[in-house]
Amino acid sequence: MSIIRDNISLKNHNTFGIDVSAKLFGEFTSIEELKNIITDKNYQQEKLLIIGGGSNILFTKNVNGLALHNQVKGIEVIEEDDNSVVIAGGSGIVWHDFVLHAINLNLGGIENMSLIPGSLGASPMQNIGAYGVEVKDRFEWLDAYHIKSGEMHRFDNAACEFGYRESIFKRKNKGQYIITKVAFRLTKKHQLNTSYGAIEKEIESLNITDPTIKDVSNAVIKIRASKLPDPKKIGNSGSFFKNPVIDNSSFEVIKAKFPKIVSYPAENGKIKLAAGWLIDQAGWKGKTIGNYGVHKNQALVLVNYGGSSGSDIYNLSEEIIQSIKETYGVSLEREVNIL
Ligand code: EPU
User: Fold this and answer.
1) CATH code of 160's domain
2) For the whole model, what pTM was predicted?
């Protein structure tokens, strides 16, 4: 039986390193344990918060309820054909460990997403992505515990309604499910995606002519480490904002004023702007206020140098949103969940 403790600091359970406390805190290593805790009459009335890697949360206040750290582990091969293998893992597995496990089995498709912080269970929640690949490109299904009915439900790719850093679990089904297992269809014969300039350059600089998925993973790790702060050293949550998607006519207006603006074609003829560029060019990059600020190498990342509060960082994000609106007429949205 899992132990539920009172008044526990969550500082080591969020990559921002914000020191808030949870009224009640526990861990679960299986669906059975999870069910036992949340159906226990002592805890049934408590507001529930499931924590994975804690890499996408900004705590602005103490958690007045039951915080449960997901520790469901285990990886299994589900099926295999000539071209692909479906592997599934417990949602509490560290995402990067899952990527490395796949690479060690010589299974390809998720190597571009090496070193993204967070857990396997959180990866479909916001359809994480990097360097030209998103979870939705390789995702097969997930199993989730429906809190209200106590039933297990399976969601295939379409049922997750994936979008850019979006899924049904951030919208319609928000707060209703606990993801327990996630499966990916990975390749045996690999199609490397090195189209992202920096990956190609990194591989060339190592004089590798016939790169493997391991080489791509190593290149991604190197690029990320050079640009993004390591949450073990400086509190942060990766990209704090999403890259905004706007329509073409608004884009033309902005481009006339800012000809160097960085943009990419998006779905339905829309244009995705690099929020990092917008924030950088508006003068925010490297700005430090006391013990928090905007990272010096990547303006999309807000950082806690130690001891700052979630509200400080939230207020900074508000200021940035307002400044971007005033400068470019563009509305930024947060990628990070505010609690
Ligand atoms: N840029 C600047 N200044 C900055 C930051 C970026 O001018 O301070 C410019 C860059 O020079 C580049 C463009 O903006 O031309 C895009 O920058 P980058 O390649 O670093 O990617 P991003 O769009 O800022 C997204 C993801 C990252 C992911 C990278 C690489 C989002 C919100 N972020 O960032 O994901 O690692 O692409 O694929 O989509 C995360 O979600 O936590 C995350 C780190």
Assistant:
1) 3.30.465.10
2) 0.93
For 150, the domain range is 75-187
* pLDDT tens-digit readout, 128-148: 999 999 999 999 999 999 999
Could you tell me if 92 and 56 lie in one domain?
A: no
Catalytic residues: 165, 239, 335
Question: 209: Cβ–Cβ under 8 A, 6 or more apart, which residues?
Answer: none
Q: What is the atom index within ligand 1 of the atom nearest the CA of 242?
A: 32
Both 83 and 56 in one domain: the answer is no
The percentage of the chain sitting over the pLDDT mark of 70, rounded to a whole number, equals 100
> In the numeric block, which tokens belong to residue 65?
């309820």
Q: How far is the CA of 242 from the centre of ligand 1 (A)?
A: 9
Q: Is 12 helix (H, G, I), strand (E, B) or coil?
A: helix
Task: Decide whether any atom of ligand 1 lies within 6 Å of the 122 Cβ.
Answer: no
Instruction: Give the pLDDT band of residue 1 (cuts 50, 70, 90).
Output: low
Number of structural domains, the chain? 3
**Atom 1 (ligand 1) nearest CA:** 277
Q: What is the domain-level CATH number for residue 43? A: 3.30.43.10
Q: Strand ranges (DSSP E) for the chain?
A: 5-9, 21-28, 48-51, 57-58, 63-70, 75-80, 84-90, 129-130, 133-134, 139-146, 152-156, 177-187, 235-236, 245-246, 263-265, 271-273, 288-289, 292-294, 302-304, 337-338
| Tokens (6 digits) for 143 | 């199993």
Query: Residue 252's domain is classified under what CATH number?
Result: 3.90.78.10
Q: How remote is the CA of residue 222 from the centroid of ligand 1, in Å?
A: 15
| CB contact at 8 A, 95 and 120 | yes
Which residues contact residue 6 at a Cβ distance below 8 angstroms, ignoring those fewer than 6 apart?
23, 24, 25
Centre of ligand 1 from the C-alpha of residue 212, in Å:
24
Alpha-carbon distance 6 to 135, whole Å?
A: 36
Question: Which residue owns the Cα nearest ligand 1 atom 20?
Answer: 298
